Amino acid sequence: MVQYCQTHFDASFGALSDATRRGVLEQLGRADASITALAERFHMTLTGMKKHVGVLEQAGLVSTEKVGRVRTCKLGGRGLEQEAAWIERYRQLWAARFDELDIVVEELKRKEKANGRKKRK
Amino acid sequence: MDVRRESEATPTKNRTEVERRSERELVVTRTVNAPARLVFEAWTKAELFRRWWVPKSYGPNLLSCEMDVRVGGQYRLVFRHEDSTMEFFGTYLEVTPHSRLVWTNEEGDGQTVTTVTFDETAGKTLLVVHDLYPSEEALDSGSTGAMPEALDQLDELLASLGSSSETK
To answer: CA–CA separation, B137 vs B63, rounded Å?
Structure first.
């Protein structure tokens, strides 16, 4: 119902689902590169590459910095660790939720028992 | 923390597991020490549901909770978020007493479908909460890779909820 971490899941997993974007990550693993250089390397338009880099940036996998007229991309510091942290945070939310659910259910159990003493079923 | 052996004394808190089953699926599992009919009741009566859906440690953020639990029925939760409110809503697709609930989440772009199963064994209920997120194509439609605004809001909400239960 409340999809707290949807943004991050979609961002990270969406980012990694594309072959070009995985290629870009691999490339940036070797050396930082400008968007222009990446576009050339992957034979695509500047606009196309900007879009891919945008997706990676949003997922926290890549960071970019503009110096003068050149935007340089490098691997982001957050990456998959960030994602694991999100999963853990999500788990904690559910764990807390379920602990409260236990309380509500225990109460229902007690009520049912009390009613059961008065009349069976 | 060390993993303790299961002792005869029932532990008060059962373990909550989260598993990413695929790119689009996220599964949460947890056992509740009660029969499915009671657990189901807590999921389907708004006055019970609102007591646990937003844990107390996350603050009194739930302003209202309406649930019309039947096939085609709607739910709507309103949260306080900073100076404003945030709404979560959708439709129940399947309501099978004591065993299965399916609903949609319609607040974002593309539809997430949540399926909850209640599986009772020896008086205990295994809960499986399965979320199926929209495909990338569905999310990408209309926006050039940018995340839909509603999802950004969710992200903010989690951040603000999380910060109240964690040391920054």
So the answer is: 34
